[in-house]
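Support reply, case 0932

Customer input (verbatim):
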Amino acid sequence: MSGCAQFEFGRDSFGFSNELVWEYRFDPATSRPVISRRQPPPTYAHRCFVLVRAARQFLYHARFDPAQAALPAETCRALVRAVISRSPRRPSAPENRVLIPGHDGLRAFSQTHEPLLKAELGGAWRSYVLRSHWRMVFPISRRHQAATARQLTMAIDQGNVPIIHIVRFPQLTINHGLLLFSQAASSTGLQFQVYDPNVPQHPSELTYDPARQTFVFPPNQSWAGGRVDVIEIYW
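Our regenerated output:
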């Protein structure tokens, strides 16, 4: 996509996480979760879609310059609002981007101004009230998943950073947003590197098996691992 910078995980992801309401432990024999409410309760949860959307908005519409002096928080608030008011679908021309001085990227900026960003990016309701969520209630075929894999591969090859919704509807075991930023062929199919806002410490991985026309998301602290259905959103 013209004018879109390449996404670098250590620079362009948030330095804080979308927190989990529940703690999950998985029975190794059955992979079934043993769930308990997290204590103390999280203060920043249900924002996975908020964070992946905002990460792409900063990639598309912000220009960071670490050589310039950093600005006070209240001045930065206006800059954040300017970025997130723009489209998550189309990047700004380089000359029209919002200048954010004093930092080399979103991760450093979000570590310095974590409370400000959490206050300004939007509430948890934004993860639920998405017009694209209607799609998960209809059957998702293997043919659809094969077409989605081709579409995501093409988008990344063109320099884009697709945002996806992964589900197992009508099950409620996973309902989550991810941002894809690279892909590579493997002996069994495709491996996508993803930004998972639940795991800001390192990139996560989503794989696609063309023989089964199936995406697989590996185990993590809230998911036992296995097949997921993938829907691209914000495209």
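We compared this against your earlier run and they match. Two observations from our side: DSSP finds six helices and ten strands in the chain. The radius of gyration is 18 Å. Please reopen the case if you see a mismatch on your end.
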